[in-house]
Amino acid sequence: MRRATIMVSIMLSSTLYGTNGDNLIGVGTKSRGMGGAGIGISHCAESTLQNPALITCTKGTSISFGGTVFMPDISAKMGQADSHKSDSDLNIIPNIAISHRLNGNWYIGVGMWGTAGMGVDYRDAKTSPIDSGNMNMVTNLQLMQFGTSLAYSTGLFGIAVTPIVQYGALDINYRGFDGSNVGDGVGQDLGFGYNIGAYYDLSNGLTVGGVYKSKIDMEYKNQLSIATQPFVDFGIFPKGMGDHLEQPAEVGVGFGYEFGKHTIAFDYKQIKWSDAKGYREFGWDDQDVYAIGYQLKEDRWRFRFGYNHSSHPLEEAKGGPAVIPAGSYSQAGGNGLNLFNILGFPATAENHYTIGGGYEFSDNFYVDLAYIYAPETTTTMSTIVGLNPESGELYTGSSTVKHSESSLSFQLSYRFF
Cα separation of 280 and 288, whole Å? Predict the structure, then answer.
């Protein structure tokens, strides 16, 4: 019985540091300053991951490197227990990109980016007989991608492909009610995928782009299988999860329009969570993402603004009654799934407001900054909230997660003509 109670508490202890599901809205500072838009507008080397066809703006060689200081603010409250705030509120996410023009039509690009992840630290949460203190959970998921692009351009039209190598690491560690430490170390894996991008210049400053990103299968041994097995043992779930957590495929289109000193960009993409291993079992829906950005060029200065909206991928599953008698745990399946989603994977950020800018110190060297803020969202669902160790009865009730985000991105770039 204790083990089942432990697993109930596990699910309240992860938070995302991505913003569209577990993905960052953009991986480069220019894009992040424009709401994450970058499918139909070129950011040179930075475009290697968003739309690799647009690295063709490079005249010689372009190098960009920087990173994002990501500051999530998330707290979870299960039933009548106290709300606890995660101490994992500061993450550093790097990005490096290089693009080079080989000749009149061919270009190459190389990049490495932190793209997504989640993590929480409840080690200092106090416990009581009616409050597990989130089981003093510490979790950490990190995803990084490395890609090399090959692009071809005729001037008005361009196409490119980027083979992707993705590194991922997942660790779950927590304290059981008996005081024992539970965890199986870090699960790591390498996955492989690809991005395909294209653009067409419609003239008069208008460009349209499209991109497809393949899904990337990842297997973190002894992580999700161990986390869900007790739900199977007590009949809550019909079967346990495998250890595959697949980054989903994406398809997107974008438009860019330049007129004088002004540039407007708009992107739409769909993230196919419902077809990705792991997330499919969580019941996630496909996510629609809209991004709009604006840039003003003024001498050597750049000023950027943007907005990003992503639909909510989580839906409340049908749960059972408030008290589930012993031997009838299957009725709690919906509440268990809600617990897994709302408290374990609270992908609840929806609206993101961005501002950024840049300055060219010379024709070769420039710097860019961006700030992103996602206002707090509050999401409540019916979940499992406790277990009576004597009767074996599961109790259900409302659980709530509050989630807001802010981040600061910094990037240095150098061009060789």
Answer: 16
